[in-house]
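Crash report, auto-generated. Payload:
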Amino acid sequence: MSDIHELIRLLGELDDDLVGCMRCGMCQAACPVFAKTGREADVARGKLALLDGLAHEMIKNPEGVKERLELCLLCGSCQASCPSGVHILDIFLKARAILTGYMGLSPVKKLIFHQLISRPKLFDSLLGLGSKLQGVFAKPVSDVLGTSCARFHSPLGDRHFPHLAAKPLHKLQKELDEPKGSSGLKVAFFPGCMADKVYPQTALAALKVLRHYGVGVFLPSGQACCGIPSLSSGDESSFETMTAINLELFEKGSFDYLVTVCATCAATLKDVWPVMLRDPELKVKAKALSGKVLDISELLVDKLGVAPIEAAHNGRKVTYHDPCHLRNSLKVTAQPRVLLKANPDVEYVEMAEAASCCGCGGSFSLAHYDLSCEIGQRKAKNIVESGASEVATSCPACIMQISDMLSQGRQEIPVRHVIEVYAENLS
Amino acid sequence: MANNAKIVKDFEAIVGAGNVMTQEVDLHAYSYDAAVLPSQTPSVAVRPTTEEQLAQVVRVCNEKGTPFAVRGAGTNLSGGTIPPKDGVVVLTGALNEILEINEEDLYAVCQPGVITAKFAAEVASRGLFYPPDPGSQAVSTLGGNVAENAGGLRGLKYGVTKDYLMGIDFFDLNGEMVTSGSRTVKCVTGYNLPGLMCSSEGTLGVFAKLIFKLVPPPRASQAMLAVYDDILNASRTVSAIIRNKIMPCTLEIMDNVTIRTVEGFRSAGLPTDAAALLLIEVDGHPAQVQDEAAMVQKICKEEGVRTIEMARDAAHKDRLWQARRDALPALANFRPTCILEDATVPRSQMSAMVDALRRIAKEYNISIGTFGHAGDGNLHPTITTDKRDKEEWKRVEAGIDAIFKEALSLGGTLSGEHGIGISKAKWMVDETSPATIEWCRGLKAALDPKGILNPGKMFWG
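Recovered output after restart:
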């Protein structure tokens, strides 16, 4: 599509959603990007006005609108605080797809999404190779944080990034299809790309906890990415391909819940798949699956009854960062904290602004690293000031971002997934 | 605009290129505020980061004769921050420093772009209290609050923004600093310019520094929720509370339409058959609070309340407040367009106004949910509609006309706290007089001979 009239027609289909914004501007209080730039075009109200302006031909610059639209973490803070209940994330994702359809996907993204991520086997073997070669390009910075930085000038810039796992989860753990365990429950497990390829210890901790509680596990091999990186770049076709692979895999099992250790994956499976899929058959399947999606902490606290125990006062201090997609999309805030308080060696401390975004936003941090860092450094500061000797959170992307921020500030405070902290005390 | 390129260069020289916006997409985002009105895209937006830069920006606009509007958070509900045609938008967002909080003399000095709620929180952390609490306080700026004389839920007992503005330094059209007011409790040095600037809607000067009075916070409070079968009884309760010399810090009403909409929104178990709810809170010394809460309870019973629930603790208080907090979001969720009015009547006329609103809703076949500050007669009749439905929109406009006519006939005012701006300018003469309009226009012309400072507002309906 390169026809401006078609672009306007498609944006017009968003009108029923766009008209709900009453321009009250309350999103200014919630938006981490606006907090840094102070520009109205960067906050949800401004972005919605731009889409409305483009749809009603008051603006003639789709490229400019696309650029502003992409300066967004998709954290959902605006939507969570919107008095009119506007479905801002749905609008943004649909608009990104419409505008990308009009302008086309960049060649690099096309290569990555069409030829790589949407082909799980190829993706796995390429990253397997990458894992063996990474020492050549990266040198370790912090053992505590597990971060490295580039040896040479690289597209990753000054980042302190984690290593690819020497052995990804799919090499460490064969596929599973167990019967219901002693708990009477069986769950499907969706580790997501990060817990498979970068942080397999997180996925292993989750599996250990599930075994401990007698929960049967269905873990099919060949899982694809949840699709959100493609979709947030406006690439609906790769998103649809990956979702189809996953839906087909999970259709083969029978289970009570589908559990993840990644807040972003959970929000994508639960909220994004049912809304954004175009294929009617896939949509029906996604809707059926949506009600079963749980973060691992929800399963343990709400379904298996894990409760806090007497707080240890001589334990190590651990604080918690709320991943946006867990807090804003799934409305899960209490359960991860309960898991931390259920570890007798932990003294839980709340950090200031625990609910504010870490600044990662997936590909946002690639395209707007400076802004991403500005937002992330505030998070790092709050962590340091909390006096915690360890940070826990529920999203591998947050773990990566926060580790980068702490590592750059030479703060050796390890960042781990909540489930790892909880699992360490189980036999 | 002919001098666009030149003025952009001038601005860039003052504030740096990064703080001047000229692209269509950036400018479109400053074409509106929170009022339901047509938008108007400015030709440039400029973001000064120091007081000196602000003065220079004003000077340049004046030299070029370019109209401009000053904008804080853009939450105005009457179109006061919608920029003039081919005009400049001057953003105050970067002038966001709290310059001083004086705990001995009980005042604070702020730049105009400080966020209201952040200021109130900082003041509270010093054990003091800044009471004005407009609904938009989480994002609104103090400069905007002063320009609009913003009110809020605490108006009845604690007053509104004007009651806290002790002094103001502002730039005239030449970018020269005018200072007024003082850091002292008493000050009669010259004209009461803070009084003139407060609710001037950005038409007389450009604010640089604001001096606010601070007060000690109340030590205790008691909230209660009263349910009525007849809105007249609710209204009589309000009058009786005041007649008994009790000044609640909150005295809020919600009518049946609002109750039902809120219950549909949250399912909190509100009585959907009730005609009205009153949320009442008294505060002050613990003994006084106890005493007054008992009196309020007694008055409610005398005036035929169905039930009254007293908050037992902080969590319970929070639950009682939830319905009132939900009022606007619930109505806003109900239909695509939500028009929040603020016609205000003398307290004694509140039940007559509520009756009239019911009649108007029926006559024009529009949906009006009414809630608001019963204690000060500042109601928020909220019309829920869809502005894309042209036929319905006509009825809405006629209904709004009728609301203002009614408020004025009851001895009330067009606007309790949202301002006149563009949306209510046409009714100004009905509340005041032709001579008033002329006098104000004369004042404006003397201070702003080129008519470039937020033109077209208030007296040009």
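Post-recovery validation: The domain at 306-423 of chain A is CATH 3.40.50.10700 (Rossmann fold).
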